[in-house]
Amino acid sequence: MPACSDEGSPLQGPKCTWGQTTSALLSLQLGWGLWLFPAAYARLGWIPGIGITLLMALTSVYSGTLFTRLYMAVPEAVLLGDIGKAARGEVGRTLVYCVIYSLDATRCIILQLAATQSLSHALGAAAPAMWQCGLVVVLLAGLLSQVRALSRLSSFFLLGTVSQLAAIGIVLYEMLRSPSPDAATQLAGDSSEHGTFHEGFVAAFSIIFAFGGQFAFCELLADMKAPLLFPRAISVCTVIMAPLYILVGATGYWSRGNSVTDIVIFSLGESLQARIAAGLILIQALSQYLVNLNVWSHNLLVLTARTYRKAAAATAGSSPDAKPGPGSAVGSALAQSANARSAAEHQPLHWLAASGFVVAYSYAVSNMIPYFSCMVGIVSSSTYLVCAYTLPCWFAVKLLHGSMARAEVVLDYALLGLSLPLSLLGLSSSVTSLVRNLGCKNCRFEPWALQAVFLMWLFVMLNVIGFRYKRVAKQQLNRQCWMPLLEKSRNSSGSSSSTNLVSS
Question: Where does the chain cross the membrane (predicted)?
Answer without folding.
Answer: 40-62, 121-144, 156-173, 201-222, 234-254, 274-291, 349-369, 375-397, 409-428, 448-469
